[in-house]
Amino acid sequence: MATFTGLNTMVRGIYINQLSLNTVGHNIVNADTEGYSRQSVNPVATPADYSSKFAIGTGVDVVSLTRARDTYADVQFRSEISKQGYYEAMARNYDKVEAIFNDSTDSGVENAMKEFYKSWLNLSTSASDSASRVAVVEKGKILSDTMRSASQQLRDQIEDKYDELSVYVRDINQILSDIAEMNGTIVAKEAAGLSANDLRDQRDVLADKLSEYVAISVHETSVGAYEISTGGVTLVAGVDRLHLAMSNGVASSKYGVDYGVVDYEIKIEESDIAFKPQTGILKAEFDSIDECKGYIDDLANMAAFMMTTLNDVHKQGYDLRGELKEATDQYGDTVYNSDGTKTQIPNTVNFFGESNVEYIYNYDSSGRFNYITIKEPTGIMRKDEKGEIVKLTGVQLLSAMKTNAVFEETGGYRYIAAATAYDTSDDFDSTMTLAEVGEHLVEWGNRTADGTNAVYISELFNMNLSSIISEKRIPTMAVTKYMGTYSTINAIGGVSFNSYYQSAMAQLGVDSNAMDTNIDQQDIIMNQIENWRDSTNGVDWNEELGDMIKFQKGFGACSRCLSAMDECLERLVNNTGAVGR
Hints:
By secondary structure, the chain is an alpha+beta fold. The protein contains 13 helices and 17 strands. The strands form seven sheets. A four-stranded antiparallel beta sheet has the order 3-4-5-6. Strands 7-10-11 form a three-stranded antiparallel beta sheet. It has a two-stranded antiparallel ribbon with strand order 1-2. Strand 15 and strand 16 form a beta hairpin. The longest helix is centred in the first third of the chain and has 62 residues, at 130-191. The radius of gyration is 40 Å and the shape is rod-shaped. The relative contact order is 0.13.
């Protein structure tokens, strides 16, 4: 009986060493397989044989075939890879935005602003030169075209982001489907006592990829299935999963500002509830869209400044015609001087936009955005086909910011108001009535060489409005009285035109640099976590080769022992009891 027990023990020894060798081979060939976890055979001594007065060992058996995995390292990896995905996606967007506002070339917004400014400066010293006047118009065209071009590129960038989101949603749905399917397969195999280690590795790879798109929390149930959730929403539970989809598009103007794009959101199909990612690539795509819209806002604010403040200063001067018109108040009523005569103001056109309308700056405090309304020559506000007051926002402002069509006429340069129309020897202040301001009006007198108003316009580029008004050299309060827009409260917040743009570009540079720094720091963290993971589940060739030799020798030893036992048994059966034959 003991002999048979010993034979069975050696058979088990051969089996477990052979299984261990197969596992070592499996580890070696999968050393470079993505997400593979090193596997090992876990042996345990089988119960002893107590049929005699001694406890005779019966060998070894396999308890399990396990994979080396550090659950805490997985949690850390998925948390950090979501941040890495976010930073890298944001950095790509900043790179594209910086390319749009590439001020290192002669075709950027900054260069167009400088050239427009120089044209006014040149006009101030050569106001009687028609070429200088034409140059102002041409440089104004280039500035407006350049700003619209930048806006269009930002719109294209937004549309590209929505296209990318659509692709990402499709990829996420496929990952969720694969995880749910693997949950069912793994549970079924392990319930039947089979090993599903390789399937578990593949499922973890899918979970890692999902983490790049959105931060997730992974919980393994008692039967081995994954439950995956994010932001309180369970995406996968066993073999069940949710489906994500892009919503129907809505014009951006519906939300208050017209960015000239169709906006989308991600929804959960089963509940029709909006899906709000917390971090990861999806979050970065939505944040990138908001960033692009923010820069469209900056361009729109600059356009609003040109169409209100710059237009107002232009209209307070004389053009080459030297014409006047009767002043009216905000209700359209004629304004009279103290002596009963009608108050006169220069009959000068807007530099940007239409000739005979007034562009009025407004601020929506609830929506926190700028917009412009248009007062018709009749004194009423322009309305749309629905009877609602027209409010120019976003790309509408940039579209409206075009040099006045009258400049395209033959001799259109004569409409440029380079000369001052007011006597600035007295201070102007906000307490003056329009009639009192009108008393400071000076006659045209054919002052074709006067470029004082061109100087006032050029100052808008490099001086903030508070400084300009405080000096009381320009009749800005006069403009405030009958235009209602020229004050420190304006589309760019009272700073100079150049300062506003430079501030926006400086912020872009700071944000882009900060994101690059975040990526560098995150790369260090990810390398640490990946090394931590690899130290647990990675395949070490030296260790595997050492195990291979150990199991090979164990297999050989058990085989030799089994052969010796077989010889003993053969001798016992064939040679004993043969005496006397």
